[in-house]
Amino acid sequence: MTQESSKIGCLYGIGVGPGDPELITLKALKALQTVPVICVPQASNRWDSYALTIVKGYVKPEQEILRAPFPTDDADGAAQTWIEASKLVVERLEKGQDVAFLTEGDPMLFSTFSYVLNGVKELCPEAPVVIIPGISSVMAAAASAGEPLVTHGQKLAILPAAYGLDDLSEATSNFDTVVLMKVSPIIVKTLADLEGLGLTKQSTYVKRVTTEREKVIRDVTEIKDEDMDYFSLLIVKSNPEKNSE
Ligand SMILES: C[S@@+](CC[C@H](N)C(=O)[O-])C[C@H]1O[C@@H](n2cnc3c(N)ncnc32)[C@H](O)[C@@H]1O
Questions:
Q1: Residues 146, 207, 109, CA angle at the centre, nearest 5°?
Q2: Which of 4, 29, 49, 203 could form an S-S bond across to 40 if both were Cys, CB 3.0 to 4.6 Å?
């Protein structure tokens, strides 16, 4: 897939979807199976990359799996780790190899790809980049819960992990539906905040969506320790009557 006009390989940012291997797009699958190098983010404190686990059945033995170390938080040194990861990618691109960087869900939503994209743009601005969107966990969770996220004229907010009571209060006042990502490390506090705001009954917890381990919990007071999972999110409806109109 290397472009004939350039000796530099192409960087593909590929969204592989939320977990079910059948939820990858045809375009992403084609790119994934054509590149010589597949790059995945690899945290030191986690099992194999989730994105790679999703597509492992599609990977060919001759493809190089490049595990790029990535920081587990935004602590000091995180930026340097991203530069190191980007350098590994650029080494391959400069050899004329196309590289597919895999991310779970969509590559443009809270994704490690954004750091590598920045790093590659900085280190090798001439490298062509193709970004192939994926089905985000947000969309998949709404499908599994069987409830539209928003309907005509309604507003949707997607918040990252760092939210407190004030953020929740503000978001649920201003938006019809609020999706809380990366919720598991702060679930206890978040559930207490939702209860304080009277929103517990309007919240749905979705874990490991579209996989065999999927769980949709409509009564969030029933969430147990074993339900905790990094791959989980909460959908909060601020005004369910309005949502069901
Ligand atoms: C770094 S973000 C990646 C989001 C991803 N790019 C997307 O489009 O879904 C990780 C967060 O996404 C959510 N997530 C990703 N995959 C999930 C899944 N299969 N089930 C539920 N939530 C998931 C969780 O909130 C998790 O903490």
A1: 85
A2: 49
Pick the CATH number of 11-132 from 3.40.1400.10, 3.60.10.10, 3.90.105.10, 3.40.1010.10: 3.40.1010.10
The CATH class of 137-243 is: alpha beta
Give the mean pLDDT of 110-130. 95
For the CA of 108, the closest atom of ligand 1 is 6
pTM for this prediction = 0.92
Pocket lining: 23 vs ligand 1, CB cutoff 6 Å: no
Q: What share of the chain is helix, strand, coil (3-state, %, to 5)?
A: 40, 20, 40
pLDDT at 71: 76
What band does 159 get if pLDDT is binned at 50, 70 and 90?
Answer: very high
Looking from the CA of residue 18, the nearest atom of ligand 1 is 19
What residues have CB less than 8 Å from 31, skipping those under 6 apart? Answer: 1, 12, 14, 100, 130, 132
Give residue for tokens 């969770």.
Answer: 141
What is the atom index within ligand 1 of the atom nearest the CA of 180? 25
Assess whether the C-beta atom of 18 lies below 6 angstroms from ligand 1.
yes
What is the length of the chain?
Answer: 245
Q: Do domains 11-132 and 137-243 have the same CATH topology?
A: no
Sheet of strand 11-15, all strands in order from the earlier edge strand to the far edge: 64-69, 37-42, 99-103, 11-15, 129-132
Q: Where in the chain are the domains?
A: 11-132, 137-243
